[in-house]
Amino acid sequence: MPSQSVWRSAAVWVAALGYFVDIYDLLLFSIVRVPSLDDLGVANSFESGLLIINVQMFGLMLGGILWGVLGDRLGRTRVLFMSILIYSAGNLANGFVQNELQYAIVRFLAGIGLAGELGAGITLVSELLPAAKRGIGTSLVAGIGLLGAVAAFFVAQAVEWRTAYFIGGGMGLSLLLLRLKVLDSGLFHQTAARTDVVRGSLLQLFRTRERSMRYLRSVLIGLPTWFMIGILVQRASTVFAPAAGITGEPVKTNWAVAAFYLGLTFGDLASGVGSQLLRSRRKVVAGFLAFSLACVVLYLFGADGWTSAAYYRLIFLMGLGMGYWALFVTIAAEQFGTNLRATVATTVPNFARGSLVLLTFGFTQLTGTKELPFLAPSLAGAVLGVICFGAAFYALWGMEETFGKDLDYQEQK
């Protein structure tokens, strides 16, 4: 169990609740996509929804760079404040959109705001907590935060889609009051006072081959997460469940998303505790990757004729296996010095999220069209799975073990 100092840390709770609203907003569109676009009179909700998702992911990638740089230059708490303000405003604006173009523009702006929350929060918590408790603290942030997806599911069932966005905006604005109680870490203030290091520069990450490889590996271990969320789970109802001949009630995308994120929440908490017990980040991530890979193989090739209830349970286990997401971001933060830490911790998860654009394109090309099919969905998913999991295992194999690492150091020019 985490000690009282972790539970009483205002930074942990502000970061956790901020990430809760972040995930609520990030997943809400996927949950209300069909009813919201139908209500707006959009003829092809699938194609339009895919476009809006890609626009949102592009906003996340741009926002990741913006907030990462500002986090190292202006401070982690300022980024938390600004990002919460922007995505809360985006949520409120979503409740007023009248057409597809407005929807896409607002999701792009919301994506920029959403990009800053997790990286800044994990960086702040990592720098404030003792080295021996960082894994617990960051896992609490992610574990509590990921429940935002489950909350989005139940809110969307209870109210109409515009109200669901208003609720998200209201929750975000309420967080601004809590954020006022949180101060930046001493490590940041020490670094800000120095003139011999460059702070918040994306280019500094690529000045040496060794540093570039550290950064690339940090991104690659997150690829399987968004392959599973964006390709396997988001297409569960329309592609994979019908292909597997799932029986009983039809599989619903919003239920699949909720099951996956519920598993992801428990997984994040378990991975944090596991890394403390084993005193290793790499061993825990490797175990979770192996478990996830087994679940993916079963999902693609072993679920024929299952009931929808059993299918949801498998999706829950897939989410459980991807529960190293918090450790993924924590490892990225621990890999780099204080002057570049926020840049890394903010851009890495958002570049991993942004990989969904390429994964979606790849899946579309591999499956072809109804008129000219190429690969069956299971085989197309397997091809992408081999790429994503292979890249993640390769990255993890060459990574430094960062458990208990002293974070009081700088990346030199």
Topology:
Blueprint: H1 4-7, H2 10-39, H3 45-73, H4 76-94, H5 100-114, H6 117-128, H7 134-158, H8 161-179, H9 186-192, H10 209-220, H11 223-233, H12 236-244, H13 253-278, H14 282-301, H15 308-321, H16 325-334, H17 341-367, H18 377-397
Helix pairs in contact: 2-3, 2-4, 2-5, 2-6, 2-7, 2-8, 3-4, 3-5, 3-17, 4-5, 4-6, 4-8, 6-7, 6-16, 6-17, 7-13, 7-16, 10-17, 10-18, 11-17, 11-18, 13-14, 13-15, 14-15, 14-18, 16-17, 17-18
Characterise this structure:
There is one protein chain. The chain has a single domain, classed as Growth Hormone, Chain: A (Up-down Bundle). It has helices at residues 4-7, 10-39, 45-73, 76-94, 100-114, 117-128, 134-158, 161-179, 186-192, 209-220, 223-233, 236-244, 253-278, 282-301, 308-321, 325-334, 341-367, 377-397. It contains 18 helices and no strands. Helix 2 (10-39) runs antiparallel to helix 3 (45-73) and helix 13 packs antiparallel against helix 14. The longest helix is centred in the N-terminal third of the chain and has 30 residues, at 10-39. Helices cover 75% and strands 0% of the residues. By secondary structure, the protein is an all-alpha fold.
Tag the structure with descriptive keywords.
single chain, Growth Hormone, Chain: A, globular
Distance between the termini: 40 Å
CATH fold naming: Growth Hormone, Chain: A
Q: Largest sheet, if any?
A: none
Q: Overall pLDDT, averaged?
A: 89
Percent in strands: under 5%
By helix and strand content, what is the structural category?
A: mainly alpha
CATH architecture: Up-down Bundle
Name of the CATH homologous superfamily:
MFS general substrate transporter like domains
Residue windows where pLDDT falls under 50 for at least 5 positions: none
Give the helix tally: 18
What is the domain tally? Answer: 1
Shape: globular
